[in-house]
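User: Please predict the structure of the protein below. I'd like the answer in structure-token form so I can feed it into my own downstream comparison script.

Assistant: Understood. Taking the following sequence of 173 residues as input:
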Amino acid sequence: VHARAGAMAPAGAGMDHAMATADPKGPTAPHATDAEFMQSAAHSDQNEIQLSKMALAKGVSGEVKTYADKMIADHTKSTANLKPIAAKAGVTLPTDMDADHQAMAPQLEKLSGKEFESKYVAQMVIDHQKTANTLAAHKTMTKDAALGNWISTTLPVVEEHLGMAHKDASMKM
């Protein structure tokens, strides 16, 4: 388990370490219940939406802009499709980033240009790998048919995002 980036370090100091040492396959977050899973999925969507809005506000261009636009559109759609399933189950979905991303965002905000783009794309690789792992794991656990269908529809999109992020990251190296 890594300490949250920057929790006790100067701005930006923890980000390189956190990104450099993250398991490339990412840990699969265990969710004992569908409710926990849906809340986690909504946080994941918000992580990508908010960081991508930050990228657009910073004036990213080219493939990174195209990627950020796609993240906002696809993750907004993902949450919209999850809302009725969550509502039927009595689950309130979060509308903000998870605590780790809230802690990391100010460090990312301080970066600009190619340095920002590189960190943003690297974070997208990490996030989408973790999300893909979590979706695949929960698909085998859920007994809710609607949630299982949502996962089946969402997982290929997340895998596409992961492939795009890997491609963008390799071009930035």
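That's the full token string. Residues 1-24 have pLDDT under 50 and may be disordered.
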